[in-house]
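User: Hey, my collaborator sent me this sequence without any context and asked if I could get a structure. I don't really work with proteins. Can you help?
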Amino acid sequence: MNLDAKTIYKIADLARIHIDEKEVDTLIPEMNKILSFMEKLNELDTSNVKPLVYMNEATNIWREDVVKQEISTKEGLKNSAKHNDQFFMVPKIIEK
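Assistant: No problem. I've predicted the 3D structure and written it out in structure-token form, which is a compact way to encode the shape of the chain:
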């Protein structure tokens, strides 16, 4: 399959991108090379190849998601420079 300028503009329109007229002359041979490479790949017999979902066979072992209180609020605030009973106190950094 060989692309022409009309097809390049159609692809650009579908992709919602603007292409200048001077770019079309460079895009035609580049996109034709891509299509010829894809045609070579289509010649390969891939009937015995499993679809690749992950790069290796390892699976992640997930732990059970259980909500628990690791530390109390008082313990979490004890090393902060400034705090009240429940919150860290930080200096204001956004000016109005």
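In plain terms: The first helix runs from residue 5 to 15. You can pass these tokens on to your collaborator as they are.
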